[in-house]
Automatic annotation (TrEMBL):
The keyword Transmembrane does not apply. InterPro entries: FAD-bd (IPR002938), FAD/NAD-bd_sf (IPR036188), Ubi_Hdrlase_CS (IPR018168), UbiH/COQ6_monooxygenase (IPR051205). Coiled coil: none annotated. Pfam families: FAD_binding_3. The lineage of its organism: Bacteria, Pseudomonadati, Pseudomonadota, Betaproteobacteria, Burkholderiales. The keyword Oxidoreductase applies. Residues 137-326 form the FAD-binding domain. GO terms for molecular function: FAD binding; monooxygenase activity. Keywords: Monooxygenase, Oxidoreductase. This is FAD-dependent monooxygenase.
């Protein structure tokens, strides 16, 4: 069947928009289905930790360099603390021999620059209607309607937890340092970001059991900050809320099939992981890079929707995605137990890893290049 559009992209989050731009750059005609943003949409408080591979992809799309000062903040050091407050695991860009460990980016800013780039992409059209295409790329997220329409099962295990996100200001400068606490049964991360107050702001990601998360969401600002200060022990100075609080349920899951004749899944439509390692969006952008490479290298006679072609993408992405899912799931299980024996073992483990420099370098390398 001959169609005017090569690829229909369903889902207009960061992964979908990046895919549309990347395909357009290699001459593929793309229709991006995008729902218009509601005028009453709440403030987007999400922030993402991007690794070097994700930054390279956004740079190739002319998006990275368009971000305004404060939209992206480099992480030079990371400090992870255990249950006892004394055990610590420290990573540094200097030890890893890289410029930075990661970049913390404002989600709304990245989407804004992607939208701007799309307006100047000659091979990409943006609209609300679906169009016939040789290939449909589904990037709609974990609750994908397109995946459901295809009848593709999604095996998902809820953690019984929610992640709370917010923006904070601090009395002390962040100095490019990310702070994380693994305390049964919650995981708390303060990610340095120069919005809203340059050099003294953080993006909060706090994963907690559902009941505890609901209680914190229902608390007033003063009560929430008091709980936050107790959890961080003042390690980041005096903290204050600078935004609303948002939350979403956490799970690990994967679609049973990632491709078929004329369709392919990317990002959270294909797989979801716990945010404790900050690798969810990195996995999705790695999906984009892999699919675009596969399409760019295809034989001239092979159709875009050929399942054998799409399986090449799945083979590239299956192993690293499975490894990251298993790693984050194992970490969550290790730190979700509150028995004293588990606390002692994991605190000792944190200290032991911190003393083994080659192991720390290997762990950091995996995160940088996932």
């Amino acid at each position: 069947m001959t169609t005017a559009i090569d690829v229909q992209v369903r889902g207009s989050g960061i992964v979908g928009k990046a895919l549309a731009l990347a395909l357009g750059r290699i001459g593929v005609t793309v229709a991006l289905q995008a729902e218009p943003r509601r005028a009453d949409a709440p403030e987007d408080v999400r922030a993402y930790a991007l690794n070097a591979a994700s930054v390279r992809l956004l740079a190739s799309l002319k998006v990275w360099d368009a971000l305004a000062p404060g939209d992206a903040t480099p992480v030079y050091d990371m400090r992870v603390r255990g249950d006892d407050g004394a055990s610590a695991l420290e990573f540094s860009a200097w030890q890893q021999r890289v410029g930075e460990l990661a970049w913390i980016v404002d989600a709304a800013a990245v989407e804004r620059e992607l939208d701007s780039a799309l307006r100047f992409a000659p091979h990409v059209s943006v609209g609300t209607a679906l169009q016939p295409a040789a290939l449909t790329a589904i990037c709609e997220g974990r609750a994908s309607a397109g995946r459901a329409e295809l009848g593709v099962a999604f095996d998902e295990h809820p953690y019984g937890q929610r992640a709370i996100a917010a923006r904070l200001t601090a009395s002390a400068p962040h100095a490019g340092t990310a702070l994380q606490w693994f305390r049964s049964p919650d995981v708390l991360a303060l990610l340095p970001i120069d919005k809203p107050r340059g050099g003294a702001s953080y993006a909060l990601v706090w994963s907690l059991p559902d009941a505890r998360a609901r209680a914190l969401l229902d608390a007033d600002d003063a009560g929430f900050v008091a709980e936050l200060m107790a959890a961080t022990g003042g390690a980041a100075g005096e903290l204050a809320l600078a935004s609303r609080r948002a939350a979403w349920p956490l799970s690990v899951g994967q679609a049973r099939s990632w491709c078929g004749p004329g369709w392919v899944l990317l990002g959270d439509a294909a797989h979801v992981i716990h945010p404790l390692a900050g690798q969810g969006l990195n996995l999705g952008l790695a999906d984009v890079a892999a699919l675009v490479d596969v399409i760019a290298a295809r034989e001239p006679w092979r159709r875009l929707g050929d399942e054998r072609l799409l399986r090449r993408y799945v083979r590239q992405r299956a192993a690293p995605t499975w490894a990251m899912q298993r790693t984050t799931d194992a970490l969550w299980r290790l730190f979700s137990h509150d028995a004293d024996a588990f606390k002692g073992l994991r605190n000792q483990g944190i200290g032991a890893v911190n003393r083994i420099t080659p192991l720390k370098r290997w762990l950091t390398a995996q995160a940088l290049n996932s």
